[in-house]
Amino acid sequence: MNNEKFATVINCIDGRVQDPVKDWIIDSFGVEFVDVITEPGDDKILSSGSKEKIEEIKQKVEVSIQAHSSKAVVVVGHFDCAGNIAVKEEHITEIKKGMEIVRSWNLGAQVVGLWVDENWEAGSVE
Ligand SMILES: [Zn+2]
Questions:
Q1: Which tens digit of pLDDT belongs to each residue from 82-109?
Q2: 35 CA to centre of own chain
Q3: Which of these, 43, 42, 35, lies nearest to 9 by C-alpha position?
Q4: Ligand 1 centroid to residue 7 C-alpha, Å
Q5: How far is the CA of 2 from the centre of ligand 1 (A)?
Q6: How far is 13 from 82, CA to CA, in rounded Å?
Q7: CA 1 to ligand 1 center in whole angstroms
Q8: Which H/E stretch holds residue 56?
Q9: What is the helix (H) or strand (E) element at residue 10, kind and residue range?
Q10: Ligand 1 mean position to 44 CA, how many Å?
Q11: How far apart are the CA of 45 and the centre of ligand 1, in A?
């Protein structure tokens, strides 16, 4: 029903990161639309949240994958996060752990990490 026009993001609720994250994903993957799942401090929840909470996020991601055949799932962490007060290095570690968790779901989509810095610029996490 579509030709890989979608990507999916697991993002924070923070209003400051929504546009930079969406723009980066559209530019990087050539998609038209980004399905959005938000949690305060999503990187912390994915890396150390309860099984129930992580399962909840997984189910939301699966709706996006199944309905829209998303080609990528992006895990975001960002500067000055109210839901995850931590230094950048901790965020990066959590984003990487989050990517491992999402990869373990075997969604058939590329899994990518993204860090949004103090200038509200997004960059991929290697
Ligand atoms: Zn945040």
A1: 999 999 999 999 999 999 999 999 999 9
A2: 10
A3: 35
A4: 20
A5: 31
A6: 9
A7: 33
A8: helix 51-68
A9: strand 6-11
A10: 10
A11: 11
CA nearest neighbour of 60 among 29, 22, 126, 105:
105
DSSP string, 85-121: ---HHHHHHHHHHHHHHHHTT--SSEEEEEEE-TTS-
What domains can be seen in the chain, in order of their start residue? 6-125 (3.40.1050.10)
Q: Are 122 and 115 in contact (CB under 8 A)?
A: yes
pTM greater than 0.85:
yes
Q: Is the pLDDT of residue 1 over 60?
A: no
Report helix, strand or coil for 20: helix
Residue 124 dihedral angles phi and psi, to the nearest 5°: -70, 150
Find the 12 Cα to ligand 1 centroid distance in Å: 5
Query: Counting every residue, how long is the chain?
Result: 126
CA of 41 to the centre of ligand 1 (A): 5
Q: Are 11 and 76 in contact (CB under 8 A)?
A: yes
Mean pLDDT value of segment 9-29: 98
